[in-house]
Amino acid sequence: MLLAITQGNLLPLSPSPLPFPRQASSFRAWGCSARRRSPAPFPICAASEYPTPSAPPRRLTRGFSSSSSSPPPQPDHILPDEEEMEEADIGMWIGEGNGEGRGQKKKHLSELSSWGIGGPCRYFLEASSPSQLISAVRYCRARSVPFLIVGKGSNCLFDDRGFDGCVILNRLNSTERTGPGAYRVGSGYPFNRLGVECSRDGYSGLEFAGGVPGTVGGAAFMNAGANGQETSDCIESVQISTTQGWVRVLDRDDLTFGYRRSCFQEMEDLAAILAVTFRLTPSVSALEQQRRFLERRRKSQPLGEKSAGSVFRNPHDSEMSAGQLIEKAGLKGFKLGGAKVSEVHANFFINFDGSTSRDMRGLISLVKEKVHQKFGVELHEEVRYVSYNVIERVR
């Protein structure tokens, strides 16, 4: 999943999103509960609302902070495997020197997309530690290079021309049990794997995640959910990095979530989600519940096909789901170029025959138009468009 967008002056963004739909969770500004309440406009998490630290930004050390109530202490030293990379090292990663590393030029984004669509990016980096990721962001900002951070690429539609900037692949795969039912997980960790591990350990809250593609950071960013569960239901805290290189830990009361929405989508200074801490509840039936969810998914979704999961959010102004509306509009199995509406689940669009980004985006637009004409319902995408030099914000 796409985790961050930056360089707003170089990457124009679409207007701010509409208020939450009626079935979304709603929250007071900077204080929220997972309980359902009456709707409220979506608050914007401005940089000015963060606690202002009295100490300068720190470099990351091994592990994660545990509190956002006060600035983190300055470490006595930087552990060897967490040392911040020098700019020259990153330069060699992306081809400015003769060194070898995990970076390259002109990597095709189709390799990072679950749709298998996308042209080459100008630069490509892999970051396997928080300090590497932060250093890569600083490097790009210092040179006004547009960048984006991706995980599994399971909700992105990349441009056929690629991306005129640096793509940073999130490989923050750390996991730690910090107590009974408490899991501190790197943002690049596969979300479905986490769901399976938690259920096997006998904890409930992430049973739905067993079949959800993407990463932990992407799930928090989009507030992924299924079968009556949402990621936000069991989030205790989230560690983030800002575009200025600060590291902050936001507790649950600092965060707002709704149906496929989170305050991270509106943070102008967000560079990346680094880690998420979950608090789960003991359950003897969690694993069996997950097995039922997975069996239902196998029967109702086109697993094994090149898709990005659900293309549209379920609308708040219709009793039918997005998939039902598309099917009732007679579009199940409809094809445009190499893209088609799945015959198994109408809210899944498939790259069945070398689809281009233009094919897929055209199909999405056509389906939106037909559903609106027939039912008067406007569908809103869950997927995000990453054009050659524009990243569109979630609406």
Automatic annotation (TrEMBL):
Q: Which UniProt keywords apply?
A: Cell cycle, Cell division, Cell shape, Cell wall biogenesis/degradation, Cytoplasm, FAD, Flavoprotein, NADP, Oxidoreductase, Peptidoglycan synthesis
Catalytic activity as recorded in UniProt? UDP-N-acetyl-alpha-D-muramate + NADP(+) = UDP-N-acetyl-3-O-(1-carboxyvinyl)-alpha-D-glucosamine + NADPH + H(+)
What top-tier enzyme class does this entry carry?
Answer: oxidoreductase
Q: Cross-referenced InterPro entries, in alphabetical order? A: FAD-bd_PCMH, FAD-bd_PCMH-like_sf, FAD-bd_PCMH_sub1, FAD-bd_PCMH_sub2, MurB, MurB_C, MurB_C_sf, Oxid_FAD_bind_N
- Any GO BP: cell division
Q: Coiled coil where?
A: none
Location relative to the cell: Cytoplasm
Q: Which PROSITE patterns match?
A: FAD_PCMH
Q: Which residues form the FAD-binding PCMH-type domain?
A: 116-283
Q: Where is this region: Disordered?
A: 51-79
Pathway annotation from the record: Cell wall biogenesis; peptidoglycan biosynthesis
Explain the purpose of this protein.
Cell wall formation.
Q: State the name under which the record lists this protein.
A: UDP-N-acetylmuramate dehydrogenase
Source organism of this protein record: Colocasia esculenta
